[in-house]
């Protein structure tokens, strides 16, 4: 019987924070683990499982649910983020314990729990069951390092110095740091989430990061001195990178209904590199003022464009604007990777969320950086000044990027020699990112190492 148990395939339980931007990379990593021969179950909250739509999920990943304490509405049903996180900790711990008992009784027991860093309480539950634990960091390692310094008290807050020097990072201005640090005291609930994600990191067996070594070598090397860190990204569907996971051309879960067919059909008759693609992600919200500036910046630049405006944001579009478009298409959502892969797309106007950044980088699309808050600020700094694949829209005294600046950025990428340099750099990073997840690449090696280490530890256990 003991020999039979040891020969069973190791089983990983994946627990993301229940938003699109966290589920997508962890689901994608799950597919990589399946490819390497592991069994995977992904845990969603009851509330988010009611919202997310499963499409094209050709995988043997199993799904389970736990409760965040707000089964009808999730975060939107909570009084504030602080209430949500505390209730999720309490109720999530109870229901995760129940789930682990259920899986054990059904001979479907778990060997390793891989949890989103935003949910550090998972470690306590997993350790009660004597399970191996890996924490999954969904942000860039440059951002993780900055937030870790804040957590450890190695970064004096509020910031007094204009220039910040941290190991493994280039010199940064205070304004380059994540907004919760630069504007210390704003959104304390989110500040706590971003710093407390490291509260249990010294008790886990592995630290997994959605990046690749070649993109952030200096800071990764520094973090590896203090964590058992493995870079395993970019966590993007395989058919857009190494193509080793058959039919993996989509994450498989969406909170919105994408208008993919209409987008691709619209792009098909546009000249190569002629289209500006604009999207601010699944959660970011723009002011009416900023929305208007984007609208007329796009219209006035004279270029073809696709602009993703979520249903909840459509009322901010200037009245009558949509009816006057000759070169633009406005959609509520689309399959972004398919758009990036289309040869007609010439640049991407982005909020610099980490998933969107990795997607554009992996598909070789230069960017116009218009960050809004949190890690987007730091991502923009690296996109523009370190990886050199973007220009940045400069905001005015109100923080609004005006239409003239947007027009200038579009022209700089689409029409100038600097734009050609950015495009060449983007293609370079596309090739490097693909190589990292292909057989023998840096991320592929790390995933293989993780799987082998888990199998070895499990046998010893």
TrEMBL record:
**InterPro entries according to UniProt:** UDP_glucos_trans
**Which PANTHER family does the UniProt entry name for this protein?**
GLUCOSYL/GLUCURONOSYL TRANSFERASES, GLYCOSYLTRANSFERASE
The organism is Medicago truncatula
**Keywords tagged on the record:** Glycosyltransferase, Transferase
What's the name of the protein? Putative UDP-glucuronosyl/UDP-glucosyltransferase
Q: Name any one Pfam family assigned in the record.
A: UDPGT
- GO process terms (BP): monocarboxylic acid metabolic process
Q: Which domain of life is it from?
A: Eukaryota
What Gene3D superfamilies would the database entry show? Answer: Glycogen Phosphorylase B (3.40.50.2000)
Keyword check for Transferase: yes
Q: Per the record, GO CC terms?
A: cytoplasm
**Gene Ontology MF: a single term:** quercetin 3-O-glucosyltransferase activity
Assigned protein family: Belongs to the UDP-glycosyltransferase family.
């Amino acid at each position: 019987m003991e020999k039979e148990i040891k020969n069973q395939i190791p089983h990983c339980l994946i627990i993301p924070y229940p938003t699109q931007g966290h589920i997508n990379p962890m689901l994608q990593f799950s597919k990589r683990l399946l490819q390497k021969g592991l069994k995977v179950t992904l845990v969603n909250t009851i509330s988010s499982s009611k919202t997310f739509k499963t499409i094209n999920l050709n995988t043997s990943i199993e799904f389970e649910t736990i409760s965040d304490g707000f089964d009808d509405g999730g975060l939107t049903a909570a009084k504030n983020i602080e209430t949500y996180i505390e209730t999720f900790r309490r109720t999530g711990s109870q229901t995760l314990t129940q789930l682990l008992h259920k899986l054990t009784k059904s001979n479907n027991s778990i060997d390793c729990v891989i949890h989103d860093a935003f949910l550090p309480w998972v470690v306590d539950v997993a350790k009660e069951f004597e399970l191996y634990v890996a924490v999954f960091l969904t942000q860039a390692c440059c951002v993780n390092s900055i937030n870790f310094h804040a957590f450890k008290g190695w970064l004096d807050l509020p910031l007094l110095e204009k220039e910040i020097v941290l190991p493994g990072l280039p010199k940064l201005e205070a304004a380059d740091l994540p907004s919760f640090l630069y504007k210390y005291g704003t959104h304390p609930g989110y500040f706590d989430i971003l710093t407390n994600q490291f509260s249990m990191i010294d008790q886990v067996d592995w630290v997994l990061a959605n990046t690749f070594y070649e993109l952030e070598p200096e800071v990764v090397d520094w973090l590896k001195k203090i964590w058992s860190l493995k870079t395993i990204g970019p966590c993007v569907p395989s058919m857009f990178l190494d193509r080793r996971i058959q039919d993996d051309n989509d994450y498989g879960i969406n909170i919105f209904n994408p208008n993919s067919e209409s987008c691709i059909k619209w792009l098909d008759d546009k000249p190569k590199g002629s289209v500006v693609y604009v999207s601010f992600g699944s959660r970011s919200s723009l002011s009416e003022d900023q929305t208007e500036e984007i609208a007329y910046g796009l219209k006035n630049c004279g270029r073809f464009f696709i602009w993703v405006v979520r249903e909840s944001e459509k009322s901010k579009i200037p009245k009558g604007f949509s009816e006057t478009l000759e070169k633009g298409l406005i959609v509520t959502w689309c399959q972004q990777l398919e758009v990036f892969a289309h040869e007609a797309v010439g640049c991407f106007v982005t909020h610099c969320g980490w998933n969107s950044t990795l997607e554009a980088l992996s598909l070789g699309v230069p960017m116009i950086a218009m960050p809004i808050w949190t890690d987007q600020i730091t991502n923009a700094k690296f996109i523009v000044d370190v990886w050199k694949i973007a220009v940045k829209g400069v905001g005015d005294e109100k923080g609004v990027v005006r239409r003239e600046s947007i027009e200038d950025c579009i022209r700089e990428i689409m029409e100038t020699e600097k734009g050609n340099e950015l495009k060449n750099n983007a293609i370079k990073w596309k090739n490097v990112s693909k190589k990292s997840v292909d057989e023998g690449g840096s991320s592929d090696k790390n995933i293989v190492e993780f799987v082998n280490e888990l199998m070895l530890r499990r046998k010893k256990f």
